[in-house]
Write a structure and sequence with these properties.
198 residues; alpha/beta; eight-stranded parallel barrel; 10 helices; 43% helix; globular
Length: 198
């Protein structure tokens, strides 16, 4: 299964409802600080939208919900790996993407046989405070050399303008968050992403 090269991340179902008609083919729902019933409702709705629009849905963090709702993918951060039942996740047939920031985390991720590896932040990010400032394009190239055929996702401070450099450096997929959701015209920005990655 080949993942699309453009990987938007949304924190609310309303974003997916707006962007699915534009032709995105890969999305992560990264919903934070919501009660369980609301989370379940949003993920269930996202699954329906994605099935109807031929979009690959990746659920961030909530692997139990992803299993309950019979989703196909889950994305795990390093903290998630501390508590996730990886054997149960694999038994459920879920594919797994894992965030990495340094070599120790990459080694740990590779030990779980991931279906993709994410590296970030490539550029400074406005979204969350991190102890890693900026990984840079050189580290993308280094990671690609280390992981071989496993798809590599570039995330963090990514924009339409920066995407070509990330692909040249070795990324297979480029992920965007605020470049879309903070843009004056998010729909136009998604169209520009699709043009730049197809």
């Amino acid at each position: 299964m080949t993942l699309d090269r453009f990987y938007p991340i949304f924190d609310d179902i309303r974003w997916l409802e707006r962007m699915a008609p534009l032709g995105i083919k890969l999305v992560q729902m990264r919903i934070k600080d919501q009660p369980e019933p609301e989370l379940r409702d949003q993920i269930a709705k996202a699954k329906t939208i994605c099935q109807n629009s031929d979009i690959t849905l990746i659920v961030n963090d909530y692997w139990k919900l992803a299993m309950d709702l019979d989703c196909d993918w889950v994305h795990l951060g390093q903290e998630d790996l501390d508590v996730a039942d990886m054997a149960a996740i694999r038994r459920a047939g879920l594919r797994i993407g894992i965030s990495t920031h340094d070599r120790d985390e990459l080694d740990r991720a590779l030990g779980h046989d991931p279906d993709y590896v994410a590296l970030g932040p490539i550029y400074p990010t406005k979204l969350k405070k991190m102890k890693w400032h900026q990984q840079g394009l050189e580290k993308l190239s280094e990671w690609k050399g280390l992981i071989g055929d496993i798809p590599l996702v570039a995330i963090g401070g990514m924009s339409v303008e920066r995407a070509p450099g990330a692909f040249e450096a070795g990324a297979d997929i480029v992920s965007a968050v605020t470049d879309i959701t903070w843009h004056d015209s998010p729909e136009d920005r998604v169209r520009a992403w699709l043009d730049a990655t197809r």
